[in-house]
Amino acid sequence: MNGRSLIPRVAGALLFLSLAATTLPRLVAFVNNARMLLPLRYEARREKQMGPWYESVEALRRELPANEPVALVATPRGVESAVFANYYLYPIRTRLFVGRNNYRDAANEPALPKTIVAVYANRVERTTYDALRDRDLRAGRRVVATPQLSAPSKTFILPIAASLDGPAPETFVIEATIANPNPAAAEVRATFWPKGMVKTLTIAPGATAAYYDFVHQLFGVTDRGWMQVDSSQPLRAAFYFANRGHDDATLLPNATGPATGIAVAPVYRDTKLFVLNPSETPVTAIVAGNPVTFAPHAFITWPVNSVPNVSGEVYAYVATRQLNGRTDFLWPR
Amino acid sequence: MIGLFVTLILFPLAGWSLGRRSLGEAFLFGAGLTGTLLFFAGLVHVPLVAALALIGVWVVGSGVWELKRRRREPRIQLPLPTPYAPLPTILLVLPLVALTFITAITPLSDFDGRAFWVLKAKGIAHERSIDGPFFRGATLDPRNHYPILIPLDSAAILGIAHDLDDRQIRWLYLGLLIALALLVRERIGRLVSPAAGAWCAALLVWIPQFVVEHEGGALSAYNDIALAAFAAGAFFELVSAGSPIRFGLWLSFLVLTKSEGLPFALVFLIIGAFVFRKRIAIPAIAAAVATTALFVWRARIPAGDEEDILRMLPTVFGKLHNLGHALAAFPTHMFLFARWGIFWIAVVIAAVLAWRVDRRAARLAIAVIAAMLAVYIGVYIATDWIVSDLIAVTADRLLMHVIAPALMLIALAGYRTKSI
User: Fold this and answer.
1) Closest Cα partner for B290 from B23, B110, B6, B36?
2) Which one of B37, B43, B279, B305 has the minimum C-beta count within 10 Å?
């Protein structure tokens, strides 16, 4: 073997060694991993490889109806997870929504999947839109950081109580803070009208209860109406009608009974007259010169172009949206 | 196991159905042919099951006939084995045995394979159509316009296995690497020397990017090895100035395998014009038919979130700020030791040496590599993605595509140095 024929051999050996230096250890690692997986069923190998995430996908695949499309609602960090969930769920058809707002913006589409799967980086789970909304609201920040508490009172009316979504990002909630300054526990009975749903809370002596979405947290619904609050102890409370999407909030008056004298003020867009009947009996009120009968505990709205005259044993107010999206309320005197 | 048997039988027989060729080439040719025929069948709405049945009958019949004919006819005398043959053969077999064991046991866990390619295979196998609801937005398919030759091959396996589980098609991706290695061994063996072929094949199956990389390697379901293999088929046809029909078929496979296949086919056609002269019309027609079919199919279905390269290219002059990143992309990745060892350093040195030995073959290899890297650099400049991010996830895979001409240069250089 002469020197010249040695050169390509040495060069070739160097080249080969440079490749094997990386490939061989990794190949050995893969083989060892495969040996470890060998005794397991194939699905169990996937579980071992992908962890609890794959287990959650597997459980979901067993649970979901095969012929019904599914909305994969992913957090921005969960998009990759959604892509793979889509892969393992197939032939179940999926549609990806990055963020809850993306899903709700498609609310009017007839083909919008009704079954929702929440996708996180580490798991997937079947859920509901309300649960996703609550997750987002809970994780977010309340609009009002330092609520202005009312004077102590045992009974009052919230003229609007809502947990609703407008077009994204508008999300309407009631942010509530209820303080019990008394030495005794307060039994608080909240009634959500006109559905008549009742929930009783207990607030310990000296304690303060805070809610980021009072209606949904108490009643588990997304709806609107008004609320009667009755307490065994005088409470200091603040209820804000908040739009989380626009980060604005309006302090609600703690009304005590009928009131109709709405001050004339400029109105903007989406202006509505709200009338509620706080009594147990039907009431006839005059709305813009016309007699209207309201069922007990009714909650009625009309679109209006200006502030109308209302009289009678009802509580009436106007809501209007400024061009910047903020909701203004014109309360009765 | 059904997937393994289908992979082992269907594609080689399909490859042998159009003439005698080595096992590696038969496998690749068969995979390309099956996918292409299914694509055309799907395009004209021939039910894919019927098309697959016809292909099955044809390939089994003609493949078996070809095998019988081969037994009757005298064997072609290959050059005598060199003293180097046993060692490179052992080195070739070792990682392939390991990969076979890993493929049999370990579930698929890559990104693009699951997110795009195998998902398409599942969609086609489930709907038995290439433009059904899956491709029309009924479900999430992020890269809807990606070419589907390999997903069609995979769908054929899934369909025959009556199982949408990806374990059935893992063999196809390993098969593509093995077939590429065998093709390299056989073709370089014939064009340069058997020892050179054996050593180049052995080198190929030890390149980390081909063997152990999660993104693009044989254990993934990316289509880069397939593209590299079809490009290898076209390249060897070009160097040997072989059949323009076969050359055209390889180009068609390129077009229908990955989006990069179209510019690759154009590069091959331009370079091939100097080799095939007037006969270049035949591969040009084949590539044009495949391209037209691809565009007709794409026109029928909504686009995904993939970049439209053709629409992007005119914007290249407005994005020259990407030039620095783009020019640095390949040199940077070529010298990534963990993925390529000193392979590309060897290729650069080999290019200089090979030029002195066989100017024609070296010129073709260098032209293919340089032209394709230039095209990819152009795409990097024109991209709307963050160019550094795109380079990070694609450059190594793009380098895979030109592996055959790179190995050819090494083979030529080794041959030259020995023969001095």
Assistant:
1) B36
2) B305
For residue B194, being part of any structural domain is answered with yes
Residue B223 lies in a domain: yes
* Per-position DSSP letters for B229-252, written without gaps between them: HHHHHHHHHHHTT--HHHHHHHHH
The one-character DSSP state at B137 is T
Distance CA A113, CA A71 (A): 5
Q: Is B326 domain-assigned? A: no
A69 and chain B: CB distance < 8 Å anywhere? Answer: yes
Q: Please give the single-letter amino acid code of residue A172.
A: F
Contacts of B165 in chain A (CB under 8 A): 42
Residue A306: what residue type?
S
Q: Using CB atoms within 10 Å of the CB of residue B297, give its burial: 0 to 12 exposed, 13 to 18 middle, 19+ buried.
A: buried
B261 within 8 A of B227, measured Cβ to Cβ: yes
Domain that holds residue B147: 2-72+83-305
Q: Which residues contact B249 (CB under 8 A, 6 or more apart)?
A: B29, B32, B33, B36, B286
* Residue B57, token pair as written in the block: 């009958």
Question: Would strands A186-193 and A171-179 be described as parallel, antiparallel, or unpaired?
Answer: unpaired
Q: Is the alpha carbon torsion for B254, B256, B258, B263 positive or negative?
A: positive
CB–CB contact B203 A18 (8 Å): no
Task: Please count the structural domains in chain B.
Answer: 1
Closest CA to A135 of A84, A75, A77, A86: A75
> Per the structure block, which two tokens stand in for A262?
């709405």
Dump pLDDT digits (tens) for A189-206: 999 999 999 999 999 999
Tell me whether residue B232 is in a domain.
Answer: yes
Contact list in B for residue A13 (CB cut-off 8 A) is: none
Distance, CA of A273 to CA of A262 (rounded, Å)? 10
- Cα–Cα distance for residue pair B21/B320, rounded to 1 Å: 46
Cα B313 to its chain centre, rounded Å, is 24
pLDDT at B420: 37
Q: What is the model's pLDDT at position A8?
A: 83
Sign of CA dihedral A145, A151, A155, A156: negative
pLDDT in tens, A72-121: 999 888 999 999 999 999 999 999 999 898 999 898 888 899 999 999 98
Measured between CB atoms, which of B102, B119, B339 is closest to A87? B119
A41 lies within 8 A of chain B by CB:
no
The alpha-helical segments, DSSP class H, found in B192-280 are: 194-204, 208-211, 224-239, 244-257, 261-276
